[in-house]
Amino acid sequence: MSFFGLDCTRKKEKEVERKIRANDREYNSSFKYATNSIKTSKYNPFTFLPLNLFEQFQRIANAYFLFLLILQVIPAISSLSWFTTVVPLVLVLSVTAAKDAIDDINRHRSDRKVNNRKVNVLISGKLISEKWMNVQVGDIIKLENNQFVTADLLLLSSSEPLNLVYIETAELDGETNLKVKQALTVTGDMGDNLEALAAFNGEVYCEPPNNRLDRFTGTLTFGTQKYSLDNERVLLRGCTLRNTDWCFGLVLFAGPETKLMQNCGKSTFKRTSIDRLMNVLVLFIFGLLALMCIILAVGNGIWENHAGSKFNAFLPRKENTAFSAFLTFWSYIIILNTVVPISLYVSMEVIRLGNSYYINWDRNMYHARTDTPAEARTTTLNEELGQIKYIFSDKTGTLTQNIMTFNKCSINGKSYGDVIDHYSGQRLEITEEMTPVDFSFNRLADPKFFFYDHSLVEAIKLELPDVHAFFRLLALCHTAMAEEKKEGDLVYQAQSPDEGALVTAARNFGFVFCSRSPETVTIEEMGIQRSYELLAILDFNNVRKRMSVIVRNPEGKLSLYCKGADTIIYERLHPSCSELMKVTTEHLNEFAGEGLRTLVLAYKDLDEEYFSEWKQRHHESSVALEDREENLEKLYEEIEKDMMLIGATAIEDKLQDGVAQTIEQLAKAEIKIWVLTGDKQETAENIGYSCNLLREEMNDVFIVAANSPEEVRQEMRDARLKMCPATEQDKFLIPEVILGNTPKVVLDENVNGDYGLVINGHSLAYALESNMELEFLRTACMCKTVICCRVTPLQKAQVVELVKKYKKAVTLAIGDGANDVSMIKAAHIGVGISGQEGMQAVLSSDFSFAQFRFLQRLLLVHGRWSYLRMCKFLRYFFYKNFTFTFVHFWYAFFCGFSAQTVYDEGFITLYNLVYTALPVLGMSLFDQDVNAGWSLEYPQLYVPGQLSQYFSKRAFMMCALHSCYSSLVLFFVPYAATYDTVRDDGKDSADYQSFALITQTCLTVTVCVQLGLDLSYWTVVNHLFVWGSLGMFFILTFTMYTDGLFQLRPSSFAFIGTARNCLNQPNVWLTVALTAILCVLPVVAYRFFYSQISPTINDKVRYKVRQMKEPAPRPRRTRLTRRSTRRSGYAFSHAHGYGDLVTSGRFLRRHAPARSLGLIPTGRSPGFKPTGRSAGYSPVGREQNPKQKVEPTSLQMFRAVKDSSF
């Protein structure tokens, strides 16, 4: 026992420090680290049945019916056969179990697919192909190009010079640019020597498993030396190896302990608001059932005392009155159980499944270029799509394509990029039909680059010095690396997509960056190869917001080239540039008005003597142990001043197709959109304006970028006072009591005008603290648009949770990267875009598709229809079952409260399973108030869903009252019609069996007529289901009441001959018609008068559609433009640049030999003939995932193809 107790204690201990010894599985296994196996499934063949039944009986309705089944086997209580309950219960449990089994089988397949991937593991000095699931902590594994990283690894060595590797981290942080990692020299020297790697016995001491993607701390002890380990030495699971032939790594964390899995967030069971309402209503129904049974039990006791004693002579009974009432109570619990229909839940599952298939089959949500259909990954949340109030969206890859295009530029005061009509002098809109600039004169031009302003090429041909200087700067001032895969095919690896787009633009205009070494940069200028000596790189960081290079040209002239954000560069310009700066500023404002990302370029000629002295000081500062960063920053500031302005660039982060139109439509549907992005503030603002989230017409856009809690609070209060001067501090909360809990609900406040809010991650961290979160939420909810910048994945989830907690609204989160997973899991609905950043978001989502624009169809069409159908289904289902059950209640007063059923047992069993199941399913799967085209034309149709107008507690009470009225009609009209009546042949027709059959027939016909009134859209299937169900009722009724079945089983088929003797009487059919008319007449009258006096938005649109008698319109696609005086900001990469690596005296890549480019040392190249809009930059320029045995779950970094298929 002590052994097992010790084992359990060890498992529960929190890991403080991880100890790993390379190539020693026995030592590492003693710590019981997790294996690399991933498990997302819930069951196995042995646990499926008990666990699944346990889960199903946690649903209160299933447990209730099991309890009924137990009651029905007690003869003293039950007046119904056991099969009336066991048949539907077994059916429901079987259908649900089958669905759960299919889902879990799919999870098992997914797990096996990942766990059975192969990787080479070094075991006993040999590389052995092992499954991922068999990899253990401490193993050394070999990865090859384009392979996924198996686990979190310590990089040991690689095929690249200086043991560098290039990885794509889109699955982790959403960034699509390649990143560089470097192994320690001591391990890198082992290379691919298997003997040395097998003999490696280094010990790693590092941090325990955690979810911090940006940091890692540890030490490696090898021999007698200790080496520090940081994040630059680690490859994380979820990354993909790129442009690196091979590398070796030591497994640090495996399986669920990897940083990727630690970041996946907690999966919560999502339920719709209708499900939550249903739980409340079911409790109410149970209370109603108990109340009815108590009334009938009391009635039984009274009846037994007054009238029952007279029957003792004929029916002697031993029990007393109280005990008889007690038994009657339980008997009526059984009889009236249909007030909580068990088939309700299985019908809801079928409806949700059907509506999920509609999403999967929708061709209008299929993206042909990527062959990606929309997919409903869960089948339990469809109707929630019709109630969305808040959308939380990622930016990069979700709203934008993450494809940077060189759009316009300003050079020496002249703007390029617009196409001007020669006759009118007006600027023309650029379309695909226009003829782009012909770059065929340049054999090294990128064929994916398009530019439409021919005047810029003319300026190049005229060899204008400023234009040449402009593109020379773009070709030299960067940290990109060139690689030639085949002759003439240059591929650039850039630190950011912006940088790659600029280098590609220079390339096409004749200034081709060819190669670099640690000391030189080689470019081809107008066909002439020139090699510049690279003397220093003053790299970019988030504070500097600029980068510079210092180079010496072949003639020996020293120059500094700088590019950066306009506000930063302007402060460092020479006073003589003031006039040019004014003109360039006008151009920058124009570019910013179009939502472009701008960058200013400047240069400075340097004195040789001054630079030598500066270089010496730079070297001393770079090797200093203390204040290194501060000293370097001072040196950078010193040399980057009095620069000369050259011009500015304008880059477009292209929006996905239809984003602006989609946002406009969703705004009309009263849906609020919040953008949560890790990008910088200027970039997020630009995209906000580009897609019309932020508009110039807004009264104000508040920027919260404070550095302390007090400042953040004050800025939010100032914003709130400006929006609503009469605002009060404490009157925006209301308590909402739900089952004893009292959460606070933040009310919506009326604001005059439209406002926007932009808040950065630093301020958001303060705003999300418990003492300030309500102020933040209140301020944000008063704004039309909220943009949160520089937010972490955890903050994204916290914002979603905040709105879920305090707003009585349904939320949706949409993203495309692994950094969006937490947000997607936190929201009521998670949508994944299968785009540029891998499949991690899709795998965690509830719905997925390829383009943001499909969101409007998902919500305004499928979501609204699903919600409307589910609400109609519930209202009708409760109506037909309450009506069915209440007839029993009224009958009890006429049968001495004896628990006698008013219907035949066969009818009770088949009523919900056969007679009324298909018509309501047909309505719930095919009904439409208006078709898809009109749903998109009038987004206002979506608003009633947000307000829960179609099904609520009030709607439920109305349904119950309607059922009560109908049940009175269904009981007393047949009762009065058969009381003291005779048949055509003079015989008495007022017997129990005839009355039961007439009541059954009236009920079945009435509920079918009511369904016909509820249906807005009749299809062939609806006709088949409605008329087929009525026909099935009569066929089965006549069949079950035949002599043959009575002879086979007299106790079960006692209504012998009732159908043929009763239904041949005209007065019976008149009774059926009268009952149906009386039941539906109040409904028809109410709907008619209500539609005339106070029509709903649905009534108005349907009336308009009928009046127009035209087909639904095609969705309008308009070009949205804006003009602004605000300034745009250039977005560099989030990470620190590569400058230190470039100038470290080490080759980053094997640069292409000059001969393969066909470069000519002197003179023009033979093919050069000097004779602009979008530069689609692709830093890879080829398919990132060649078709091999690698699942396409990771991201192609950038694409440069036009998406014309939508």
TrEMBL record:
Residues 1159-1206 are annotated as: Disordered. Keywords: ATP-binding, Lipid transport, Magnesium, Membrane, Metal-binding, Nucleotide-binding, Translocase, Transmembrane, Transmembrane helix, Transport. Residues 20-86 form the P-type ATPase N-terminal domain. GO terms for biological process: Golgi organization; phospholipid translocation. The active site is at 394 (4-aspartylphosphate intermediate). It catalyses: ATP + H2O + phospholipidSide 1 = ADP + phosphate + phospholipidSide 2. Its EC number is 7.6.2.1. GO terms for cellular component: plasma membrane; trans-Golgi network. Its cofactor is Mg(2+). It is a multi-pass membrane protein. ATP binds at residues 394-396, 499, 540, 563, 597, 677-679, 790, 796, 819-820. Residues 842-1096 form the P-type ATPase C-terminal domain. It is found in: Endomembrane system; Membrane. It comes from the Eukaryota. The chain crosses the membrane at residues 83-102, 280-303, 323-346, 873-894, 906-926, 955-975, 995-1013, 1020-1041, 1068-1090. Its main location: membrane. InterPro entries: ATPase_P-typ_cyto_dom_N (IPR023299), ATPase_P-typ_P_site (IPR018303), ATPase_P-typ_TM_dom_sf (IPR023298), ATPase_P-typ_transduc_dom_A_sf (IPR008250), HAD-like_sf (IPR036412), HAD_sf (IPR023214), P-type_ATPase_IV (IPR006539), P-type_ATPase_N (IPR032631). This is Phospholipid-transporting ATPase.
